[in-house]
Structures are given as structure tokens and as C-alpha cells.
What does this fold into?
Amino acid sequence: MKTRIVTAILIILVCIFPVASGGIPLEILALLILAGSLYEWLSTQTEFRKWPLFVPVSLLVLTIASRFIPQSYQFAYWILCLVYLWGLPIFLESYTIGNAFVAISFFVIFSLIYQCIGLLQENHLYLITIVFATYGSDTGAWFFGRRYGRHKMNPRISPKKSWEGFVGGIISGFIIGWIPTFFFLDQVSLVLVFLLCLLCPVVAEFGDLCFSAIKRFYHIKDFSKLLPGHGGILDRVDSLLMNVLLFGVLTSTFLM
It folds into this structure.
């Protein structure tokens, strides 16, 4: 428990300035998370360490570049990237067609996440709301689940999650998400903030289950051991990443 607490404090200290300030610090943090997520995502493949270095490096570059390709070339760019990742097994014995689909899934999911981060850069204050609503939900779900949990949500995927914790997480996430938001209400859309506080706790639980399903499939407890007491980067940001995608959906609906 002591190790977990110390690691949590270090994570907060590293992330608080980029999240609060936005701009280049947030971009650097996003790139570090993206690179770490790539390693953990691909590490689920037993053949990963046999791949030539250019495979993960090119996948990371393609994912980052996807955000900066002009809109008129996006369609062609995505097709070329998919064909490249799909066709590599023809030339590499250590890179199977199963590996190709894992790489493609990373490219699709994280390219969208990285593009949504670009939207957050336009007004990073929304990210503060998202972070508080997401981790407020996680904390509330843990507390209420531990205290009142009786009915399991999905023991096949996550044996410890309960419906009581789920409801408690929604309530706590909604309330905690508003706490920092009151300080910058005049700089954001009230409708969008309300929807984020309302939906982020729900989507956070869904995101947690989605990433848990991956770990169950590959029979791993954590994505890595990079963060002592917490597992890997993806173990910490799974819910947050899903809420970043939620922001992309909401902002394109209510701000464009």
C-alpha cells in the first residue's frame, strides 16, 4: 500500500502542471503516454521482441502524424497506413497476421485519441474537468463498491466491480468533476461541462471494463510494471483515454 501511495503522489506531481497549463507541457505528456501505451499494447504479443525495431517506431510515427495530415488527405492516409500494417506479415516472419490486427487496432484507437487531444489543446480547461470526473468516479466506485458492493457487474471481466460501486462512482464523479470547473465556468461551455460531468463517470467504468477485457484475453494482471503498485500506464489511464474520446464526440456535436 505504501508503494502504491508513493507512486500515486509521483504521478500527480508529474501530471499536474501539464494538465493545468496545457500547451507544450501537455503535448509532451501526451506523447510520453502514447509511447508508453504503444509498448504496453504491443507487449501483449509474444512475438513482439522479435520484431524489427522499425515496426513499433513506424507505428508510433504514423499514429502521431495522423493528427497533422490535412483533412483532404486523411482518407488516403488512413488507407495507406492500414495497408502497410496489414501487409507487413508478407515480408516479416516474426510479425504474424494476428500481430497486424493488434497493430491496426492501436493505430485506429490511438490516432483518434491523439486527435481528440488536439481538440483539447484548443481549450485545455475541459481536460481538468475530465480528469476530476474520471478519477473522482474511480475513487467513488472503489469506496462504494468496497463498502456496499453486493451485486457483481461482470465477474467474467472484472470480478471486483459491483453495481453499487458503479452507481457510487457516477455520483462521486459528477460532483467531483464540478469542483475545479467552478473556477473557470466563464471560459467553457456550460452544456458541454454538464455533459462531461454526467457522462465521464459512466464512460470511465466502460473504459475500465474494455481494457480489463484485453488483459483477461491475454491472461495478464497488468499491462506492465512501469508504475510500482499500479501496473502500467494503460492501467492508470484506461478510463481517461475513453473519456478523451467522449470529449471528441461531444465537442464535435456541441462546439462545431
